[in-house]
Design goal:
Elements: H1 5-8, H2 11-20, H3 25-37, H4 46-57, E1 62-67, H5 75-84, E2 95-100
Antiparallel strand pairs: 1-2
Helix pairs in contact: 2-3
């Protein structure tokens, strides 16, 4: 499966791709379900998590570092991602480490 298809392609585009690059029907159904219909993916981006954590703990009380592993987007795919999602830049992070201090009330 090409990287980032769940962000770049519609369900129909994914189905069309796999007519030319066959998967078993069961695998394709699972891919479509997981990528487009499940509630297991929350559809948040790295910057969304940063914003949420900082809103809870305060900008000065949080340290956030990206966790990066696995394949990265090629320059061409990165360009497509940045065009489609101009508010977001961190497509390289698969997770994050958060250190936060809760202020006393």
């Amino acid at each position: 499966v090409p990287p980032f298809v769940h962000l770049l392609w519609t369900e129909q585009q994914t189905r069309e791709y796999f007519t030319e690059h066959p998967l078993s029907e069961n695998h394709l159904d699972n891919l479509i379900e997981y990528s487009y219909h499940t509630n297991l993916l929350n559809r948040l981006f790295y910057e969304d998590y940063e914003r949420i954590v900082k809103s809870v703990f305060g900008e000065k009380n949080v340290s956030i570092k990206p966790l990066i592993w696995g394949p990265q987007a090629s320059p061409q795919v990165m360009q497509l991602l940045l065009q489609k999602y101009p508010r977001y830049k961190r497509f390289d992070a698969q997770g994050m480490t958060i250190k936060a201090i809760k202020q006393k009330r």
